[in-house]
């Protein structure tokens, strides 16, 4: 039986796609190796969300193509920019992120095969690494943001069947998973393509009913879709099996820029949403994404973003400097000079780090329950508070997947550090 090497880049949804492909390939008896040179077939699951990521993907495609193996390029770059991929590796097969269910056809084909369009999302993964299982609930989204190349790769919203999601989680928990990451481009959009008779809340409700000691992390959602289900979402987040964590990308603190981005909410609406969540869920961790230097961002708009950061005091912000993505509307707009973007991202990063550190310092001296989920560096173990803030524990007696009482002794802007209480 032929051997396969898989290399994955990008978001949790990309990793979930990899696990779907691996599940199907394992069912056909394929074996996996850790080195591309030892493989008969190479699968590269790509990301194209930013320019520097795309350049890295181009380089990696070129490197893997020189090995003269059967090369399959998957992920967002294969679907959004197939001509670019084929210009680097003309003989590579391509499989889009919404057609990963057809990986067996692509692998078995003697000729180059290009499969970029998908049907319904029906197959959930039955494999995971460590103690964290990533289970997709949906891919694609209901929006059409001006800056987003992912929309060109995942063109339609596809919600996975509820039964498939529940069965995947049950199997993962029985196999030892302690953290279930329910992922999607916009998890709150779940069910819109199914007539709206079922929602993300129904999914989480069913998953919480599964026996076992595990925690559920609800993945990223757009503010406008979160608003649609907010009352029920808050109620389900009170469940002890659900992390008090919500990822709500705001992208800009300026209404005019949000309109240029084609985002479907105002800053006041976003603030109201955050205020409602925080007032009803103690210790909730609201994480956000912000793009610095999007077309139309003048000094006033940038300052409005800084003001929003100061006012809402996010524990975690994924800050990104805007980069042109081909075939998007933002690419055709007048651009902010690179020198200005670089200066602004430095200012925003410094502010974010100051805010995050001040939040984390409030935990120093306290004792909290922590569930250990990952191996860290230099023999450490990484755990999570109930609001998903990471805690690094240095001890030889820490087991993964266990709850510990930990005294927080140190803090950085990125994480907490602690010892057994």
From TrEMBL:
Cofactor remark: Binds 1 or 2 [4Fe-4S] cluster. One cluster is coordinated with 3 cysteines and an exchangeable S-adenosyl-L-methionine.
Keywords, alphabetical: 4Fe-4S, Iron, Iron-sulfur, Metal-binding, S-adenosyl-L-methionine, Transferase, tRNA processing
Keyword Transmembrane on entry: no
Catalytic reaction equation(s): N(6)-L-threonylcarbamoyladenosine(37) in tRNA + (sulfur carrier)-SH + AH2 + 2 S-adenosyl-L-methionine = 2-methylsulfanyl-N(6)-L-threonylcarbamoyladenosine(37) in tRNA + (sulfur carrier)-H + 5'-deoxyadenosine + L-methionine + A + S-adenosyl-L-homocysteine + 2 H(+)
UniProt xrefs under InterPro entries: Elp3/MiaA/NifB-like_rSAM, Methylthiotransferase, Methylthiotransferase_N, MiaB-like_arc_euk, rSAM, TRAM_dom
Coiled coil: none
Molecular function via GO: 4 iron, 4 sulfur cluster binding; metal ion binding; tRNA (N(6)-L-threonylcarbamoyladenosine(37)-C(2))-methylthiotransferase activity
Pfam families the UniProt entry points to: Radical_SAM, TRAM, UPF0004
Requisite cofactors: [4Fe-4S] cluster
TRAM domain residues: 361-421
Residue stretches making up the MTTase N-terminal domain: 2-112
Enzyme class: transferase
EC number in record: 2.8.4.5
Domain of life assignment: Archaea
Keyword Heme: no
Segments forming domain Radical SAM core: 127-358
NCBIfam families: MiaB-like-B, MiaB/RimO family radical SAM methylthiotransferase
Family statement: Belongs to the methylthiotransferase family. CDKAL1 subfamily.
Protein purpose: Catalyzes the methylthiolation of N6-threonylcarbamoyladenosine (t(6)A), leading to the formation of 2-methylthio-N6-threonylcarbamoyladenosine (ms(2)t(6)A) at position 37 in tRNAs that read codons beginning with adenine.
Protein name (database record): tRNA-t(6)A37 methylthiotransferase
